Amino acid sequence: MSLAHLQIMWSIGRLGRNKPTDIAAAQVLLNLAARPGVPPLTVDGKLNPATLAALQAFQAKHGGGSRAVPSIEPASATIRALVAAAFPAAQRLMQLPQGTASAISERDYDEAARSLNCEAAAVKAVAAVESAGHGFLASGKPKILFESRVFSRETEHKYDHLFPDISSRHQKRALYRGGEDEYKRLKKAMLLDRTAALRSASWGKFQILGLNFHMAGQPSLSSFIGAMFQSEGAHLDAFCAFVTSRHLVTALRSHDWASFAERYNGTGYSEKHYDRRIKEEYDRARAAGPQVAAR
């Protein structure tokens, strides 16, 4: 783990260039480095008196001098010391379970289809579209997509201008990085608000949003995240619970792909042709072998 997610690019301080994004990064680091019980700074990108005082106090203690200088450069001893001091708390905030990457079997699909009274091909089709049929990365971590629009909403839009790569009022496909790089985005958000960040990622083989943990059959966000790291079987259980909670079983059973896609992916589903893609994957899976038929 590192704090490369937060970078200070220009000088900050009384005579610094004081770019809002740099100040915001410093505010996050100062909060992480603060002693227990110290009121946290508001992360707003403004060099207000509280932020300046905290920065100068840290510099006086760790910057190699008895007095604070007018500005602090990005590669200075003070910034290096601040990153080092923030690291233990950051490590705790960014901590995630270990993944096992245990895969789903055909029997698992058949049992899920029986529980939903649908064809296994329909369940396979959703997995194929949502995660290309694989719930885990090569590293053993579950596949995720970090949803900047959800994070923006979960944090009341307060990070949109300071951290636009992870917080946006509108969905921006260009922000997605895919694969392991999505975890970099997630962990940066976790440094700002761990709970909101975990709620704002889509997880696993069926890409279920963390904020929907209860509909996915889990009593808490923490237990949901644990299940997502556990196995594809846990992903499948979450999917069955979710489609049942969302009343999507009828659409899945009757192959009403448009209705299913709208309720599962949102009203913008047609832009990415989710309904057509699910139908194509269903036809492919059905042609590949026998299926459990709906009763």
Strand content: under 5%
Low-confidence stretches: none
Main β sheet profile = 3 strands, antiparallel
Q: Based on Cα principal axes, name the global outline.
A: elongated
How many domains would you count in the coordinates?
Answer: 2
**Distance, first to last CA:** 50 Å
Calculate the mean pLDDT score and round it: 92
DSSP summary: helix tally: 13
Structural class: mainly alpha
Q: How many strand segments?
A: 5
CA radius of gyration:
23 Å
* Strand arrangement, major sheet: 3-4-5
Helix content: 40-55%
H/E order of the elements?
EHHEHHHEHHHEEHHHHH
Report on this structure.
With 295 residues, this protein is mainly α. It has two domains: 12-93, no CATH class; 106-288, no CATH class. The protein contains 13 helices and five strands. The chain has helices at residues 20-33, 49-62, 77-93, 106-116, 120-131, 148-154, 181-192, 194-199, 221-230, 232-245, 249-254, 257-265, 274-288, and strands spanning 12-13, 71-72, 144-146, 201-203, 208-209. Helix 12 crosses helix 13 (274-288). The longest helix is centred in the N-terminal third of the chain and has 17 residues, at 77-93.
